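Sync notes, pocket subgroup
Present: LS, DG
LS reminded everyone that the earlier model was apo-only. Rerun requested with protoporphyrin IX containing FE included. Inputs:
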Amino acid sequence: PYETFRRLRAETPVAWIPEPPVGNWPSGPGYWAVFRHADVKHVLRSPGDFSSHLGATQIRDPDTPEDLESVRAMMLNQDPPDHSRLRRIVAAAFTPRAIRALEATIEERARALIASALRQGEVDFVEVAADLPVWTLAHIMGVPDSDRRLLYDWASRVIGYQDDEYAGLSTADLDSLSPMAREAATQRPESFQHPDGRPVNPRSRAALADMFAYAHALAAAKTRDPGDDVMSRMLAGGLTRDEFEQMFFLFAVAGNETLRNGIPGGLLTLLQHPAAFERLRDDPSLLPSAIEEMLRFWPPVMDFRRTATRDVQLGDQHITRGQKVVVYHASANRDETVFPHPDHFDITRTPNDHVSFGFGPHFCLGAHLARTQMRAVFSELLPLTIKQTGEADRLASNFQNGLKHLPVSLT
Ligand code: HEM
Protein backbone atom coordinates (compact mmCIF):
# COMPACT_ATOMS: atom_id res chain seq x y z
CA PRO A 1 0.00 0.00 0.00
CA TYR A 2 3.01 2.32 0.34
CA GLU A 3 2.70 3.89 -3.11
CA THR A 4 -0.95 4.66 -2.36
CA PHE A 5 -0.02 6.14 1.00
CA ARG A 6 2.60 8.33 -0.73
CA ARG A 7 0.01 9.66 -3.16
CA LEU A 8 -2.53 10.25 -0.39
CA ARG A 9 0.02 12.13 1.75
CA ALA A 10 0.66 14.43 -1.20
CA GLU A 11 -2.90 14.84 -2.49
CA THR A 12 -5.39 14.27 0.32
CA PRO A 13 -3.45 13.99 3.60
CA VAL A 14 -6.73 14.02 5.55
CA ALA A 15 -9.24 12.10 3.42
CA TRP A 16 -12.85 11.03 3.86
CA ILE A 17 -13.18 7.26 3.38
CA PRO A 18 -16.63 5.70 2.96
CA GLU A 19 -17.16 2.34 4.66
CA PRO A 20 -18.96 0.00 2.27
CA PRO A 21 -20.36 -3.29 3.56
CA VAL A 22 -17.68 -5.97 3.86
CA GLY A 23 -18.69 -9.63 3.98
CA ASN A 24 -21.65 -9.77 6.32
CA TRP A 25 -20.92 -6.49 8.11
CA PRO A 26 -23.17 -3.59 7.27
CA SER A 27 -21.73 -0.38 5.89
CA GLY A 28 -20.29 2.09 8.41
CA PRO A 29 -20.70 5.85 8.55
CA GLY A 30 -17.26 6.46 6.99
CA TYR A 31 -14.17 7.99 8.58
CA TRP A 32 -11.43 10.57 8.21
CA ALA A 33 -8.09 8.95 7.37
CA VAL A 34 -4.92 10.76 8.47
CA PHE A 35 -1.72 10.01 6.55
CA ARG A 36 0.97 12.57 7.43
CA HIS A 37 3.40 12.07 10.33
CA ALA A 38 2.74 15.51 11.90
CA ASP A 39 -1.06 15.09 11.72
CA VAL A 40 -0.90 11.53 13.10
CA LYS A 41 1.14 12.75 16.08
CA HIS A 42 -1.18 15.71 16.57
CA VAL A 43 -4.25 13.47 16.74
CA LEU A 44 -2.56 11.00 19.10
CA ARG A 45 -1.35 13.68 21.49
CA SER A 46 -4.73 15.47 21.68
CA PRO A 47 -7.18 13.21 23.54
CA GLY A 48 -9.29 16.28 24.41
CA ASP A 49 -10.17 16.68 20.70
CA PHE A 50 -9.69 13.09 19.51
CA SER A 51 -11.06 10.65 22.05
CA SER A 52 -10.21 6.97 22.49
CA HIS A 53 -13.32 6.53 24.64
CA LEU A 54 -16.25 7.92 22.62
CA GLY A 55 -16.23 5.22 19.96
CA ALA A 56 -13.26 3.04 21.09
CA THR A 57 -10.15 2.64 18.90
CA GLN A 58 -10.99 0.24 16.05
CA ILE A 59 -12.22 1.41 12.64
CA ARG A 60 -15.15 -0.95 12.82
CA ASP A 61 -17.74 0.03 15.43
CA PRO A 62 -18.53 -2.61 18.05
CA ASP A 63 -21.54 -4.74 17.02
CA THR A 64 -23.94 -3.46 19.67
CA PRO A 65 -24.18 -0.54 22.14
CA GLU A 66 -23.58 -3.10 24.93
CA ASP A 67 -20.36 -4.24 23.22
CA LEU A 68 -19.24 -0.62 22.95
CA GLU A 69 -19.95 -0.11 26.64
CA SER A 70 -17.83 -3.16 27.62
CA VAL A 71 -14.92 -2.38 25.36
CA ARG A 72 -14.84 1.24 26.53
CA ALA A 73 -13.81 -0.07 29.96
CA MET A 74 -10.45 -1.09 28.45
CA MET A 75 -7.46 1.12 29.32
CA LEU A 76 -6.71 1.46 25.59
CA ASN A 77 -10.18 2.90 25.05
CA GLN A 78 -10.15 5.41 27.92
CA ASP A 79 -9.30 9.10 28.03
CA PRO A 80 -7.70 10.94 30.93
CA PRO A 81 -8.30 10.84 33.88
CA ASP A 82 -9.63 7.23 33.85
CA HIS A 83 -6.90 6.24 31.45
CA SER A 84 -4.18 7.55 33.77
CA ARG A 85 -5.73 5.77 36.77
CA LEU A 86 -5.77 2.41 34.95
CA ARG A 87 -2.30 2.84 33.48
CA ARG A 88 -0.81 3.61 36.91
CA ILE A 89 -2.04 0.27 38.24
CA VAL A 90 0.04 -1.77 35.80
CA ALA A 91 2.79 0.60 34.61
CA ALA A 92 5.38 -0.44 37.20
CA ALA A 93 5.61 -3.91 35.63
CA PHE A 94 6.73 -2.42 32.29
CA THR A 95 9.36 0.20 33.22
CA PRO A 96 12.82 -0.16 31.64
CA ARG A 97 14.09 -1.29 35.05
CA ALA A 98 11.43 -3.99 35.45
CA ILE A 99 12.06 -5.23 31.92
CA ARG A 100 15.85 -5.26 32.40
CA ALA A 101 15.30 -7.63 35.31
CA LEU A 102 13.61 -10.03 32.87
CA GLU A 103 16.17 -9.67 30.09
CA ALA A 104 18.31 -12.71 30.91
CA THR A 105 15.21 -14.94 31.19
CA ILE A 106 13.91 -13.69 27.84
CA GLU A 107 17.31 -14.22 26.20
CA GLU A 108 17.52 -17.74 27.55
CA ARG A 109 14.07 -18.55 26.21
CA ALA A 110 14.89 -17.04 22.79
CA ARG A 111 18.11 -19.08 22.65
CA ALA A 112 16.20 -22.29 23.36
CA LEU A 113 13.55 -21.49 20.73
CA ILE A 114 16.05 -20.73 17.99
CA ALA A 115 18.19 -23.76 18.95
CA SER A 116 15.13 -25.97 18.61
CA ALA A 117 14.25 -24.40 15.24
CA LEU A 118 17.84 -24.95 14.11
CA ARG A 119 17.61 -28.64 14.99
CA GLN A 120 14.45 -28.90 12.86
CA GLY A 121 16.17 -27.10 9.97
CA GLU A 122 13.00 -26.14 8.09
CA VAL A 123 10.39 -24.27 10.09
CA ASP A 124 7.47 -21.91 9.83
CA PHE A 125 9.13 -18.93 11.45
CA VAL A 126 5.77 -17.42 12.47
CA GLU A 127 5.19 -20.46 14.71
CA VAL A 128 8.72 -20.21 16.13
CA ALA A 129 8.47 -16.49 16.83
CA ALA A 130 4.97 -16.69 18.30
CA ASP A 131 6.08 -18.64 21.33
CA LEU A 132 8.37 -16.02 22.87
CA PRO A 133 5.81 -13.22 23.31
CA VAL A 134 3.17 -15.58 24.59
CA TRP A 135 5.58 -17.23 27.03
CA THR A 136 6.85 -13.84 28.24
CA LEU A 137 3.33 -12.51 28.58
CA ALA A 138 2.23 -15.53 30.61
CA HIS A 139 5.27 -15.01 32.85
CA ILE A 140 4.48 -11.31 33.43
CA MET A 141 0.76 -11.84 33.91
CA GLY A 142 1.13 -14.80 36.25
CA VAL A 143 -0.66 -17.18 33.85
CA PRO A 144 0.56 -20.79 34.37
CA ASP A 145 2.96 -21.82 31.63
CA SER A 146 0.75 -24.79 30.70
CA ASP A 147 -2.04 -22.39 29.72
CA ARG A 148 -0.03 -19.99 27.62
CA ARG A 149 -1.31 -21.39 24.32
CA LEU A 150 -4.77 -20.28 25.38
CA LEU A 151 -3.57 -16.67 25.17
CA TYR A 152 -2.41 -17.41 21.65
CA ASP A 153 -5.71 -19.03 20.68
CA TRP A 154 -7.87 -16.24 22.04
CA ALA A 155 -5.79 -13.58 20.35
CA SER A 156 -5.93 -15.46 17.03
CA ARG A 157 -9.67 -15.78 17.22
CA VAL A 158 -10.24 -12.15 18.15
CA ILE A 159 -7.77 -10.67 15.67
CA GLY A 160 -8.58 -13.21 12.95
CA TYR A 161 -12.18 -12.13 12.47
CA GLN A 162 -11.37 -11.15 8.89
CA ASP A 163 -9.37 -14.30 8.17
CA ASP A 164 -10.85 -17.78 8.66
CA GLU A 165 -7.56 -19.63 8.68
CA TYR A 166 -6.03 -17.39 11.32
CA ALA A 167 -9.09 -17.62 13.53
CA GLY A 168 -8.79 -21.39 13.42
CA LEU A 169 -5.10 -21.55 14.35
CA SER A 170 -5.84 -23.33 17.60
CA THR A 171 -3.05 -25.22 19.27
CA ALA A 172 -4.20 -25.62 22.87
CA ASP A 173 -4.74 -29.22 23.80
CA LEU A 174 -7.30 -29.46 26.59
CA ASP A 175 -5.49 -32.29 28.36
CA SER A 176 -2.33 -30.24 28.70
CA LEU A 177 -4.04 -27.31 30.44
CA SER A 178 -3.97 -26.52 34.16
CA PRO A 179 -6.84 -27.80 36.34
CA MET A 180 -7.93 -24.16 36.64
CA ALA A 181 -8.24 -23.80 32.85
CA ARG A 182 -10.12 -27.09 32.60
CA GLU A 183 -12.52 -25.89 35.28
CA ALA A 184 -13.10 -22.61 33.38
CA ALA A 185 -13.60 -24.69 30.23
CA THR A 186 -16.45 -26.61 31.79
CA GLN A 187 -18.33 -23.33 32.16
CA ARG A 188 -18.31 -22.92 28.38
CA PRO A 189 -18.20 -26.48 27.08
CA GLU A 190 -19.57 -25.58 23.66
CA SER A 191 -16.55 -23.56 22.73
CA PHE A 192 -13.75 -25.34 24.58
CA GLN A 193 -14.56 -28.99 24.16
CA HIS A 194 -14.34 -29.97 20.57
CA PRO A 195 -13.42 -33.59 19.76
CA ASP A 196 -10.16 -32.48 18.13
CA GLY A 197 -9.37 -29.89 20.80
CA ARG A 198 -10.18 -26.88 18.63
CA PRO A 199 -12.60 -24.17 19.64
CA VAL A 200 -15.98 -24.84 18.06
CA ASN A 201 -16.97 -21.24 17.63
CA PRO A 202 -14.11 -19.50 15.89
CA ARG A 203 -15.27 -15.94 16.25
CA SER A 204 -14.28 -13.23 18.64
CA ARG A 205 -17.41 -13.23 20.78
CA ALA A 206 -16.91 -16.81 21.95
CA ALA A 207 -13.18 -16.23 22.35
CA LEU A 208 -13.90 -13.32 24.66
CA ALA A 209 -16.33 -15.34 26.77
CA ASP A 210 -13.73 -18.11 27.10
CA MET A 211 -11.06 -15.61 27.97
CA PHE A 212 -13.15 -13.91 30.65
CA ALA A 213 -14.16 -17.24 32.23
CA TYR A 214 -10.47 -18.08 32.45
CA ALA A 215 -9.52 -14.62 33.76
CA HIS A 216 -12.00 -14.97 36.63
CA ALA A 217 -10.74 -18.46 37.49
CA LEU A 218 -7.18 -17.10 37.55
CA ALA A 219 -8.32 -14.12 39.64
CA ALA A 220 -9.82 -16.47 42.24
CA ALA A 221 -6.52 -18.37 42.43
CA LYS A 222 -4.50 -15.14 42.69
CA THR A 223 -6.77 -13.76 45.40
CA ARG A 224 -5.95 -16.83 47.50
CA ASP A 225 -2.28 -16.70 46.62
CA PRO A 226 -1.14 -13.28 45.27
CA GLY A 227 2.20 -12.96 43.51
CA ASP A 228 4.42 -10.25 42.05
CA ASP A 229 2.65 -10.33 38.71
CA VAL A 230 0.37 -8.12 36.63
CA MET A 231 -2.75 -10.14 37.51
CA SER A 232 -2.12 -9.57 41.22
CA ARG A 233 -1.54 -5.84 40.57
CA MET A 234 -4.84 -5.70 38.70
CA LEU A 235 -6.65 -7.39 41.59
CA ALA A 236 -5.13 -5.01 44.12
CA GLY A 237 -5.95 -2.01 41.91
CA GLY A 238 -9.69 -1.84 42.58
CA LEU A 239 -10.82 -2.31 38.96
CA THR A 240 -14.48 -2.75 38.08
CA ARG A 241 -15.47 -6.14 36.67
CA ASP A 242 -15.50 -4.76 33.12
CA GLU A 243 -12.17 -2.97 33.56
CA PHE A 244 -10.62 -6.17 34.87
CA GLU A 245 -11.90 -8.33 32.01
CA GLN A 246 -10.94 -5.78 29.40
CA MET A 247 -7.46 -5.29 30.84
CA PHE A 248 -6.86 -9.04 30.65
CA PHE A 249 -8.12 -8.99 27.06
CA LEU A 250 -5.87 -6.03 26.21
CA PHE A 251 -2.73 -7.77 27.47
CA ALA A 252 -3.63 -11.08 25.83
CA VAL A 253 -3.82 -9.38 22.44
CA ALA A 254 -1.41 -6.44 22.70
CA GLY A 255 1.45 -8.41 24.19
CA ASN A 256 1.12 -11.29 21.81
CA GLU A 257 -0.24 -10.47 18.34
CA THR A 258 2.04 -7.49 17.80
CA LEU A 259 5.30 -9.36 18.28
CA ARG A 260 4.07 -12.53 16.67
CA ASN A 261 3.84 -10.37 13.54
CA GLY A 262 6.65 -7.93 14.29
CA ILE A 263 9.38 -10.55 14.73
CA PRO A 264 8.66 -12.48 11.48
CA GLY A 265 7.94 -9.16 9.72
CA GLY A 266 11.40 -7.98 10.78
CA LEU A 267 13.03 -11.18 9.54
CA LEU A 268 11.18 -11.01 6.22
CA THR A 269 12.35 -7.41 5.80
CA LEU A 270 15.96 -8.48 6.43
CA LEU A 271 15.63 -11.37 3.96
CA GLN A 272 14.33 -8.92 1.37
CA HIS A 273 17.33 -6.63 1.99
CA PRO A 274 20.30 -9.04 1.95
CA ALA A 275 22.97 -6.30 1.92
CA ALA A 276 21.53 -4.79 5.11
CA PHE A 277 21.32 -8.28 6.65
CA GLU A 278 25.01 -8.90 5.83
CA ARG A 279 26.01 -5.57 7.30
CA LEU A 280 24.12 -6.36 10.50
CA ARG A 281 25.85 -9.74 10.77
CA ASP A 282 29.20 -7.99 10.38
CA ASP A 283 28.34 -5.38 12.98
CA PRO A 284 25.79 -6.61 15.54
CA SER A 285 26.21 -3.34 17.45
CA LEU A 286 23.77 -1.97 14.84
CA LEU A 287 21.01 -4.23 16.19
CA PRO A 288 19.16 -1.56 18.25
CA SER A 289 18.90 0.85 15.29
CA ALA A 290 18.13 -2.07 12.94
CA ILE A 291 15.21 -3.06 15.17
CA GLU A 292 13.80 0.47 15.10
CA GLU A 293 14.09 0.40 11.31
CA MET A 294 12.36 -3.00 11.13
CA LEU A 295 9.52 -1.52 13.18
CA ARG A 296 9.33 1.56 10.94
CA PHE A 297 9.39 -0.51 7.77
CA TRP A 298 7.02 -3.23 8.99
CA PRO A 299 4.74 -1.63 11.59
CA PRO A 300 2.92 -4.54 13.27
CA VAL A 301 -0.11 -2.29 13.79
CA MET A 302 -1.17 -0.26 10.76
CA ASP A 303 -3.78 2.09 12.22
CA PHE A 304 -5.76 3.14 15.27
CA ARG A 305 -8.95 5.12 15.54
CA ARG A 306 -10.11 8.12 17.56
CA THR A 307 -13.45 10.04 17.60
CA ALA A 308 -13.74 13.83 17.38
CA THR A 309 -15.10 15.30 20.63
CA ARG A 310 -15.98 18.64 18.95
CA ASP A 311 -15.90 20.32 15.55
CA VAL A 312 -12.22 20.69 14.78
CA GLN A 313 -9.93 21.59 11.88
CA LEU A 314 -7.28 19.07 10.80
CA GLY A 315 -5.09 20.12 7.90
CA ASP A 316 -7.51 21.61 5.38
CA GLN A 317 -10.46 19.49 6.49
CA HIS A 318 -13.25 20.36 8.86
CA ILE A 319 -14.05 17.44 11.13
CA THR A 320 -17.44 17.31 12.81
CA ARG A 321 -17.99 16.24 16.42
CA GLY A 322 -18.63 12.49 16.61
CA GLN A 323 -16.87 11.59 13.35
CA LYS A 324 -14.29 8.81 13.28
CA VAL A 325 -10.64 9.77 12.75
CA VAL A 326 -8.22 6.98 11.82
CA VAL A 327 -4.46 7.50 11.95
CA TYR A 328 -2.25 5.40 9.69
CA HIS A 329 1.04 4.59 11.45
CA ALA A 330 2.07 2.70 8.32
CA SER A 331 1.83 5.90 6.26
CA ALA A 332 3.35 8.23 8.89
CA ASN A 333 6.40 5.95 9.03
CA ARG A 334 7.09 6.65 5.34
CA ASP A 335 6.52 10.41 5.47
CA GLU A 336 9.22 11.94 3.25
CA THR A 337 9.26 15.17 5.27
CA VAL A 338 10.51 13.24 8.32
CA PHE A 339 12.40 10.26 6.89
CA PRO A 340 14.93 10.90 4.09
CA HIS A 341 14.47 8.20 1.40
CA PRO A 342 11.58 6.68 3.33
CA ASP A 343 11.34 3.55 1.16
CA HIS A 344 15.00 2.76 1.75
CA PHE A 345 15.54 0.20 4.54
CA ASP A 346 18.45 1.76 6.43
CA ILE A 347 19.54 -0.11 9.56
CA THR A 348 21.68 2.86 10.64
CA ARG A 349 18.84 5.39 10.42
CA THR A 350 19.21 7.89 13.28
CA PRO A 351 17.06 9.59 14.40
CA ASN A 352 14.18 7.26 13.64
CA ASP A 353 10.98 8.92 14.78
CA HIS A 354 8.64 6.11 13.72
CA VAL A 355 5.20 5.90 15.33
CA SER A 356 4.88 2.11 15.37
CA PHE A 357 4.42 2.20 19.16
CA GLY A 358 1.97 5.09 18.88
CA PHE A 359 2.45 8.48 20.51
CA GLY A 360 1.00 10.51 23.39
CA PRO A 361 -0.79 9.16 26.46
CA HIS A 362 -1.44 5.72 24.95
CA PHE A 363 2.17 5.20 23.83
CA CYS A 364 2.69 1.45 23.93
CA LEU A 365 3.14 0.29 27.50
CA GLY A 366 5.02 -2.78 26.24
CA ALA A 367 7.56 -0.95 24.06
CA HIS A 368 10.62 -1.82 26.21
CA LEU A 369 9.42 -5.36 26.52
CA ALA A 370 8.88 -5.63 22.77
CA ARG A 371 12.34 -4.24 21.97
CA THR A 372 13.94 -6.62 24.48
CA GLN A 373 12.26 -9.62 22.88
CA MET A 374 13.18 -8.52 19.37
CA ARG A 375 16.83 -8.02 20.42
CA ALA A 376 16.89 -11.45 22.04
CA VAL A 377 15.55 -13.20 18.91
CA PHE A 378 17.62 -11.33 16.34
CA SER A 379 20.85 -11.77 18.35
CA GLU A 380 20.30 -15.52 18.03
CA LEU A 381 19.44 -15.30 14.33
CA LEU A 382 22.40 -13.20 13.21
CA PRO A 383 25.02 -15.98 13.22
CA LEU A 384 22.76 -18.31 11.17
CA THR A 385 22.27 -18.75 7.45
CA ILE A 386 18.59 -18.22 6.78
CA LYS A 387 16.78 -18.86 3.52
CA GLN A 388 13.13 -18.32 2.73
CA THR A 389 11.77 -21.61 1.41
CA GLY A 390 8.21 -20.63 0.47
CA GLU A 391 5.68 -17.83 0.17
CA ALA A 392 5.23 -15.44 3.08
CA ASP A 393 1.50 -15.73 3.62
CA ARG A 394 -0.19 -12.55 4.78
CA LEU A 395 -3.07 -12.15 7.21
CA ALA A 396 -6.26 -10.62 5.84
CA SER A 397 -6.71 -7.66 8.19
CA ASN A 398 -6.95 -3.90 7.92
CA PHE A 399 -5.48 -3.47 11.41
CA GLN A 400 -2.73 -5.97 12.00
CA ASN A 401 0.21 -6.13 9.58
CA GLY A 402 0.29 -9.85 9.96
CA LEU A 403 1.99 -12.93 8.58
CA LYS A 404 0.40 -16.33 8.88
CA HIS A 405 3.34 -18.32 7.58
CA LEU A 406 6.99 -17.63 6.82
CA PRO A 407 8.73 -20.86 5.80
CA VAL A 408 12.50 -20.69 6.23
CA SER A 409 15.49 -22.99 6.50
CA LEU A 410 18.06 -22.34 9.22
CA THR A 411 21.64 -23.63 9.17
C1 HEM B 1 -0.55 0.34 23.14
C2 HEM B 1 2.01 -1.11 19.28
C3 HEM B 1 3.98 -4.71 21.89
C4 HEM B 1 1.03 -3.61 25.52
C5 HEM B 1 0.02 0.29 21.88
C6 HEM B 1 -0.22 1.25 20.83
C7 HEM B 1 0.50 0.83 19.75
C8 HEM B 1 1.17 -0.39 20.11
C9 HEM B 1 0.55 1.50 18.39
C10 HEM B 1 -1.04 2.54 20.94
C11 HEM B 1 -2.52 2.34 20.77
C12 HEM B 1 -3.28 3.64 20.66
O1 HEM B 1 -2.72 4.69 20.31
O2 HEM B 1 -4.51 3.63 20.86
C13 HEM B 1 2.78 -2.20 19.68
C14 HEM B 1 3.77 -2.84 18.84
C15 HEM B 1 4.34 -3.84 19.57
C16 HEM B 1 3.69 -3.83 20.86
C17 HEM B 1 4.11 -2.43 17.42
C18 HEM B 1 5.41 -4.83 19.20
C19 HEM B 1 6.35 -4.64 18.34
C20 HEM B 1 3.37 -4.71 23.10
C21 HEM B 1 3.70 -5.62 24.17
C22 HEM B 1 2.87 -5.31 25.18
C23 HEM B 1 2.02 -4.21 24.77
C24 HEM B 1 4.77 -6.70 24.13
C25 HEM B 1 2.86 -5.96 26.55
C26 HEM B 1 2.24 -6.63 27.21
C27 HEM B 1 0.35 -2.46 25.17
C28 HEM B 1 -0.64 -1.83 26.01
C29 HEM B 1 -1.10 -0.70 25.33
C30 HEM B 1 -0.38 -0.66 24.08
C31 HEM B 1 -1.09 -2.32 27.39
C32 HEM B 1 -2.17 0.30 25.80
C33 HEM B 1 -1.51 1.48 26.41
C34 HEM B 1 -2.50 2.53 26.84
O3 HEM B 1 -3.67 2.50 26.44
O4 HEM B 1 -2.08 3.40 27.61
N1 HEM B 1 0.88 -0.69 21.42
N2 HEM B 1 2.75 -2.82 20.88
N3 HEM B 1 2.37 -3.87 23.50
N4 HEM B 1 0.49 -1.73 24.02
FE1 HEM B 1 1.71 -2.21 22.50
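DG: The chain is about 50% helix and 10% strand.
LS: Residues 2-94+256-410 form a domain with the Cytochrome p450 fold (CATH 1.10.630.10).
Action: DG to write up.
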